[in-house]
Amino acid sequence: MGERIREICYRDMKRYLELLQLGYSEGPAAVDTVDALLQSARLYGRFFYLWKCMSFLHLFPTIIPQILVFEKEGVVVGVRSVRRRGGHRGPFLVIHISVDPAFRRQNIARRMRSYFEQNLDPDTSHSILHKVLETNTPQMNSSEGGGYHLYARETTFFLSPDVWSQTVRVLGKKVDASVSLESIISCKPKWREIKNLKVREIPSEMKRCDPQSVFPFGRPPGISNILTNIFLTRPEWKGGIIINGELVGSAVLLYHRLQRTYELDISALPEHNDAVYVLLLQVMNHLSERAKAPVNVIVCDYQTSVVEVLKNSDFAVKEKKRLYYKKIDPRLSN
Asked: Are residues 93 and 178 in the same domain?
């Protein structure tokens, strides 16, 4: 039967889950994230034809992935999943790539990538984003060799419920010792204000690579966002810090239903560690009254104030990723 790359079929779902589970077992990813991703994949199988119909009609592109499989002699040996980020016109985000260990070093991942890129709409330009664990050297080399450019590094910090009380005490002491509370005003910012803060926080070179990165909470809610809030996440709390009449920091706390974790999105202008300490203390005090669950915070290397505060506040590093970007304009190659 030879080799071919094609879209996933219902009969591939069991093998698809096997390859995903295999790929996740090789990395340092936390169990809660793996379980959530596998639960999502099982939902695709349970509602396969509905999912395929929505994918064909390009409905809900931020939560409905496009999945390719690499078939060799009738056996699926590789899978690649991609979805949109930020709506129909947002960049593509590669969710995962997994190849059976027995068939590696045969350029299968590269061939699936080339197949996807060659079948994009030739009448418009496209952006593709790819996150790679820093421990995955082969995939980093493949991305860089495939024309992708490194534009940021991302760290996932996490806090275990076992150290919540200790963390609140540590944060309280740091705030009392180093923060001038007279100059700080706590507020509940509007989503538009959070978006504007993110625009100021992100370096211009990153905005060119990943323009949707400023919109996780600031853009008008579409159907995909509403469905995400209903089925995956629930807003728990948001707050901001104003210094000298300017919003310099914000925090949004979500509860992830599948992962059963709290997800904290925190932003701050450079050199405003004091605002981050106050926000983090407010979040932890809020969580102290809730059901115990791990807290995840994803930050990029340019968020220097947030990174420094998290390192000094009992948060541990769960994983580090490199963020890659590629711009494709088929019109320029014609």
From this structure: no
Question: Cα dihedral sign for 26, 31, 32, 37?
Answer: positive
The owner of tokens 């968020």 is 303
Between the alpha carbon of residue 10 and those of residues 15, 44, 100, the distances in Å are 10, 9, 19
Whole-prediction pTM: 0.83
Do 216 and 294 fall within a single domain? yes
Question: Based on the domain organization, do 207 and 115 belong to the same domain?
Answer: no
**Cβ–Cβ < 8 Å for 159, 295:** yes
Torsional class of 238: left (φ above 0), alpha (ψ -120 to 50), beta (otherwise): beta
18 part of a folded domain: yes
Residue 7, domain CATH? 3.40.630.30
Within 8 A by CB and 6+ apart from 217, the residues are: 191, 194, 195, 252, 265
Residues 164 and 307 in one domain: yes
pLDDT by residue for the chain (334 residues), tens only, comes to 689 999 999 999 889 888 888 776 665 444 445 565 666 777 777 878 887 887 777 777 777 888 999 999 999 999 999 988 866 777 898 988 889 999 988 999 999 999 999 998 888 888 899 988 898 888 888 888 889 999 899 999 999 888 888 888 888 888 877 777 778 899 999 988 988 898 888 888 787 777 666 555 544 455 555 656 665 677 789 999 999 899 999 999 988 887 788 999 999 999 899 999 999 999 999 988 777 889 999 999 999 999 999 998 889 998 899 999 998 886 665 5
Assigned domain for 210 exists: yes
Q: Are residues 108 and 165 in the same domain?
A: no
Q: What is the residue range of 312's domain? A: 155-320
The verdict on 162 and 89 lying in the same domain is no
Q: Could you give the CA distance from residue 263 to residue 194 in angstroms, rounded to a whole number?
A: 16
| Domain end (from 96, 119, 142) | 119
Asked if 303 and 176 sit in the same domain, the reply is yes
Q: Which among 126, 133, 169, 144 is positioned nearest to 328, based on CA atoms? A: 126
Phi and psi at residue 60, to the nearest 5°: 50, 55
Q: Which residues pair with 325 in a beta bridge?
A: 129, 149
